Each structure stands twice: as C-alpha cells, then as structure tokens.
Amino acid sequence: MDMSQMNLIEQFIYYFQENGSYVFSQFFRHFLISVYGVLFAAIIGIPIGIIVSKRKSLARWVVRVSNIIQTVPHLAMVSMLMFSFGLGVNVVIITVFLYSLLPIIKNTYTGMTQVDKNALDVGKGMGMTAWQRLYMVELPLAISVIMAGLRNALVIAIGITAIGTFVGAGGLGDIIVRGTNATDGAAIILAGALPTALMSIITDWILGLIEHRLDPSSRTSKS
User: Fold this and answer.
1) Could you give all domains of the chain from N- to C-terminal order, each with its CATH number?
2) What is the pLDDT of residue 62?
3) Cα–Cα distances in Å, from 180 out to 104, 164, 166, 185?
4) Distance CA 160, CA 171 (A)
5) Which H or E run includes 90?
C-alpha cells in the first residue's frame, strides 16, 4: 500500500470521526426516501401485476408504458418532475416510484402466470372462491418472484436517490457532491459512496432472507 492510499484511508477515518452523525443522518434519510418510493410502487404495482395476469390483453400495454418510463434518464426525470412538484424530497420519491413500477409489475405478472394450474384446479375443487385462491394459493406460490422484483426495485431506488441532492432532497448524494467540489475530496466521496453501496448490499441481503422465509418451497424442504 503506497503513501497516497494510506493518506486517503487516514482522511476517510478522520472525516467519519468528525462527521459521523451527519453521515448517519444522511444514510437514514437516503434509506427512507428509497423505501417510501418502492413501498408506494409496490402498493400500486403488485395489484396491477395481478390484474394484468388475469387479463393478458392488458399486459403488453402496461409493460410498454413502464418500459417507456425506464428509457428516460434518471436526472432528466427528476428535472421534469421538479417543474411540477418543486424542489425537495417529494420529487425524488415520485421518481423512485416511477422507476420501481416496471420490475414490480413484471415480476408480479411473471410470478402469477407461472403458478401451477393444477394447484388452482385443486383450490376450485375444494370450493375456494377467487379471492381465497388468490391469497391462499397464487400469492404464496408467486411470492418469491414478486420479492425478487422488490429487491431489484429497491437496489435501483438507492442509486436513484443519490441524485436527489440536485433537487435539495438530501441523502448520501450530498456527501458525494460535496467531495467532488472539494479540492482534495476523494475521502469525502468515499464517505458517501461506500455507505450507499453498503446500503444496497444489506437491503438486498435482508430482502433475500425474507424472500426465502416466505417461499413455501423452503418451508417444505425444512419439514
């Protein structure tokens, strides 16, 4: 390890010692913005995915609209929404919401359409209503694919939230931009970039554990 790397590590440690509470507050703010956007997208996207799985003629149009949203660069979307909603957190949450819809809708649709038809026939034979088959058969069998969509959406959301600093939303992007504007800001950039990467890894790991716990096949294998 050369001298410059040693200096960078020392500066990084010193920055955390002096600004640890600020980094943590921005980390928490960044996380909440990402979660709120994905949560709202899940509330809207999962029901849409279920509906289009039952009405496949709608699926192509819904996915096409979601794909169009995905083609717009993140910063351009934030800039366009800023004219309607002003500066601040709401713009970033709406942006995260829009970009999270596609993976959530597509995975919900895929998970629902991959449910074994024999399981549905058994449910019908037992006298289950359509709602009972949905909650007791289809959603439990599709949950692993739906959760994969949520994991993908949240990881994307954490990256999008980093650009929220350009509209005054705060988050770890503030630290990264502060580092880019500093004369010798490599350590400051790391202080924002490393927690952002760590957040993505930890949230993906936690959601993976939840996905595994909710998956009926994992419970069957244990028994």
Assistant:
1) 24-216 (1.10.3720.10)
2) 83
3) 34, 16, 13, 6
4) 11
5) helix 89-113
